[in-house]
Design a protein that fits this description.
This protein is of the alpha+beta class. The strands form 4 sheets. Strands 2, 3, 6 and 8 form a 4-stranded antiparallel beta sheet that branches. A hairpin with a 5-residue loop joins strand 10 and strand 11. The chain is elongated and about 170 Å long. The termini are far apart.
Length: 326
């Protein structure tokens, strides 16, 4: 009995150790996941590589690269089974693309009308509501910033996105045409914003490229779908838009009428020019013929030509008045 107890305890301890530390140390990584392993709380790094030298930091300024420089860590790809020791810990992160309303506030879900409408002030001090979505995913090349850089990365990304968007709305001006011609301003910033939604979305995509280097979250796209004025000014804005459309229509009609008159004037000038050429051409031909007679026939031929022309005129005339010298 004394020998059996130690053997049983030894066997039980062995089974417990194998289950607790060996079998439980085996793990797998799904296809839409990436994993990161730490040893005594320190992530496994790739030498001295840092994100400041990675292409994801190209959009950062030199000062920002120094501030947001994170170590490059070893990322465990999908598959398995993998093994970890008891002093190691595995962090699994989903890299699937997610969509969220751009008015969503992770720190206060009830803000912005329950995360549905984002308010912003336009250039003409008009409060407007913005609606749209943001697509994002975790950046595999900067898992360190996502897991250990900030407490809530998505909250930082949303705050950064909203601040850039509000700054853009407050200072937006319609872009110039491709040939450099300044854009025609409607006088109402909301109208300009609505007509240039594509430019605003492209601007936001460009400005938010640095989010991967900052917070480890990559913004795939931002899609602003609606820009609406407050209800109390919507009717007034509709009336202004109607008046503006009427003025634009009148201007277009006036331009079309002016263009038509210009074309008619050009045609009239062309017709009169052709008539003048038709009248001048016989005289030019006659002058050329007389010059040729004088050159090849001498003065006598020219005198004879004039005499023959005069006789032809006499034959056609009914009365001839001749001057008699006294």
């Amino acid at each position: 009995m004394l020998v059996g107890i130690p053997l049983g305890m030894l066997l039980g301890f062995t089974v417990w150790f194998l289950v607790r530390y060996l079998a439980a140390g085996i793990f797998t990584v799904n296809q839409n996941e990436r994993a990161l392993k730490t040893s005594f709380g320190r992530a496994q790094r790739i030498g001295g590589a840092v994100t400041a030298n990675d292409p994801i930091s190209e959009s950062l300024s030199p000062e920002e690269r120094e501030r947001y420089s994170c170590p490059q860590v070893r990322v465990i790809p999908p598959g398995g089974p993998y093994f970890k020791w008891p002093w190691e810990k595995v962090y699994k992160v989903s890299i699937a693309t997610e969509t969220v309303n751009m008015a969503y506030d992770p720190g206060s879900p009830h803000s912005n009308a329950g995360g549905t409408i984002l308010e912003a002030v336009t250039k003409d001090q008009l409060n407007t509501g913005l609606t749209g979505q943001i697509r994002y995913k975790v950046c595999e090349r900067n898992l360190y910033a996502y897991l250990f850089g900030v407490k809530n990365p998505i909250a930082h990304v949303m705050g950064y996105f909203v601040s850039v968007l509000r700054e853009r709305i407050a200072n937006f001006e319609a872009p110039a045409a491709a040939d450099g011609t300044p854009a025609v301003q409607t006088g109402i910033s909301i109208n300009d914003l609505r007509k240039n939604l594509r430019d605003i979305n492209e601007h936001m995509d460009k400005e938010c490229r640095s989010s991967a280097a900052r917070y480890g979250i990559q913004l795939d796209a931002s899609l602003i779908t609606g820009i609406d004025p407050p209800p109390e000014v919507e009717s007034a804005l509709a009336a202004i838009n109607t008046a503006h459309n009427q003025v634009s229509s009148d201007i277009s009609l006036a331009q079309a009428s002016a263009d038509q008159k210009i074309v008619q004037s050009r045609r009239a000038v062309e017709i009169e020019t052709l008539k003048s050429q038709a009248e001048v051409e016989p005289l030019r031909r006659l002058a050329a013929q007389l010059t040729d007679l004088k050159t090849h026939g001498g003065n006598g031929a020219l005198t004879g030509y004039v005499r023959n022309v005069r006789l032809g005129l006499y034959s056609d005339a009914g009365r001839v008045v001749m001057e008699v010298k006294q």
